[in-house]
Design a protein that fits this description.
Order of helices and strands: HHHHHHHHH
Shape: elongated
Radius of gyration: 21 Å
Number of helices: 9
Distance between the termini: 34 Å
Largest sheet: none
Number of strands: 0
Strand content: under 5%
Structural class: mainly alpha
């Protein structure tokens, strides 16, 4: 029954969040701020992780596919599809849930226990709309960019491994990442990541907004936000893959 209570409170909070902002100028200012905080500041970790994952995957796939019956360009095909279909659209979101999600939960949770949100409500401000909506819209906006950067940097990482590591030739790798390319995989990855971006920000905002107590509860809210958003992402990943690729 506690799960049903959380679902009900979450739906009611989202109902309050997705209202027309009372002050458009304030919303757009917060939106621009969140674009930088949640999106732009996530680019470095996005690029670093993706480059190394692309290089490691290229090396690992080559070592695991030492079969004369398999063409060497298969390494590029598998690296491309794995990054596009799963890592950049799903695993990356799990990583960002730890960075962005915990940040949102702790920020809003701190405002709750210090009674800043209560003060907003007393002044007639829709605190859910003011605090949460810019975070959700900004992160959803940035997710396609983060996914594209992730895929591109991972392929560059694989290229560097082929060039410097000598596991296969550059021509074989480049041919592999262009072979039998399915264009729908790009919008599939972007759509999936945007849905996951909504999950990360909305679930984290919910746990932060409903925090009660002191600093210890803020830490618990941050942990719950990361864990629960990650579980929901993994569940939706199965559902969306079945729905969009079957």
């Amino acid at each position: 029954m506690k799960i049903l209570q959380h679902i009900g409170e979450y739906v009611l909070l989202m109902w309050r969040t997705f209202r027309m902002p009372d002050r458009q100028r304030m919303f757009w200012r917060q939106y621009a701020f969140e674009l930088d905080k949640q999106g732009t500041q996530s680019v470095p970790i996005d690029l670093i992780i993706s480059i190394f994952i692309g290089a490691i995957m290229t090396l690992q796939i080559k070592l695991d596919m030492e079969n004369p019956l398999l063409p060497r360009y298969t390494v590029g095909v598998v690296t491309r599809d794995t990054m596009l279909l799963e890592f950049s659209s799903t695993i990356l979101c799990l990583i960002l849930a730890g960075k962005v999600g915990s940040n949102i939960a702790s920020e809003i949770g701190t405002m709750r226990i210090t009674e800043q949100i209560d003060a907003m409500e007393m002044m007639g401000v829709n605190s859910a709309n003011y605090l949460i909506l810019p975070k959700i819209t900004a992160f959803i906006t940035m997710m396609p960019i983060l996914v594209i950067f992730s895929v591109a940097s991972a392929l560059i990482g694989g290229y560097l491994m082929a060039l410097l590591g000598g596991v296969l030739t550059v021509d074989e790798y480049v041919y592999g990442i262009t072979y039998a390319f399915i264009e729908f995989h790009v919008p599939y990855a972007i759509i999936k990541s945007m849905i996951f971006g909504f999950v990360i920000t909305s679930v984290s905002a919910y746990y932060g907004y409903t925090t009660r107590g002191g600093a210890l509860e803020v830490g618990k809210a941050s942990t719950n936000a990361v864990v629960n958003s990650s579980v929901i992402i993994l569940f939706l990943d199965i559902f969306l893959t079945k729905l969009m690729l079957s």
